[in-house]
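BUG: 3D viewer hangs when loading the predicted structure for this chain

Environment: internal workstation, default settings.
Expected: structure renders.
Actual: progress bar stalls at 90%.

Input used:
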Amino acid sequence: MLKESLEMFHLDENTWRAVADQFTRELDMAGVGESSSLKILPSYSSAPRGNEKGNYTAIDFGGSNLRVMQIKLQGQGSYRIIKQLSRPLRDPQGRYDYTGPHTTGEDVFGWVADLVAELLMGISTDGLGFTFSFPMKQQSIDSACLISWTKELKPAGTIGKDPGVMLGDALKSRGIKLKPAAIINDTVAVFLAGCYHDSAVCAGSICGTGFNTCILDYNQWKYPMIVNTEAGNFSRLPLIYYDKVLDSQTENPGQQLMEKMVSGKYLGELLRVTLKDMGERGAWSDYDPSLQIWNQPFAIKTEVMDWMQKETPQARLLLAGWMAEKGIPARAENYQLFTSLVKVIVQRAIMLIAASYFSVLQRNPLLYGERQLIAVDGALFKHWPGFLAGTEKILQRELQDRSVFLTYTENGSSIGAAIAAALSLVP
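Structure tokens produced before the viewer hung:
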């Protein structure tokens, strides 16, 4: 029965190509306004030339921490971080908590403005770029409409409003004559940061808690524009039983299906669902249905999966401690079971991401030339052994006529915000 479960996650060559073809078809449909699980959402930003210069303030707001930086763009694709500050949404000492039920928009954007004010003490700036990684409808390079919040944030009185205006008002009330020159999401920021360093970048992608990709689109704009594809919502996928079980238990069934198969938020839950099913079918002798882990969604974190697949003494020690805490016998057979499942779950994620990238790279191949780069960011690309290299290897195998590489873009969300501001202020 273990072999049966392992084989369910296997993607053969024909299935892989079918996924890539469907991704292309969905992108084309989105481009002409037809119903599609993908989008072609304009960022109102073009690719940088690499010669942009100036001192810019960058805000990265979208995860569990708020980060602000003062960045000097030096031209020739280089930059220098002059100063940076970071604050968590929830203070460990309990002095504030912006995830609380009584938080307002004024509270949150005032908090952001306070950190910007602290950053700018004794510093002059040429402009402000704002990476705002929450669902929003972009209206221009410096204007957007907030659709919803994620990641525990639910400040009152903000939905439908412009985050740039709310931040600008908060800055103004603190005597800071500054408003965002550009508002972008984190994927666009990664593209800009990667392309500033190397003009061969033709897409930006993040695979961490979530998954998304943006591309440089030539088809319907006055100039080549970076567009957001909402790749995590791609739905033309070979779902297996475990995918359907996981999806049915989420807050948004039928949505973000690609994300639920490849991102760090869901890989651990996919493993838990698989192990629980194997236990209930009698395929795992150490399964104990009374243990809390089998009735607690998202009880297996991605870092635990990392311990399972490493097979090093330190990883085994950490895993043994976790298993003891959860009540699972720390036996060699269980180690092997976990390792085998983690490897096939992660390999499938790598293959699905590679299929989407293959589609993107094939979309306008003549416009990009022989050398193509995808700028990437996110915890899985940064920390998971072989995730970036495995994705890259598949693309290089399938696109032998071109030099294709993934380039990890450190601090992409912040650097990209500074570049977006420069592009907006200096045409």
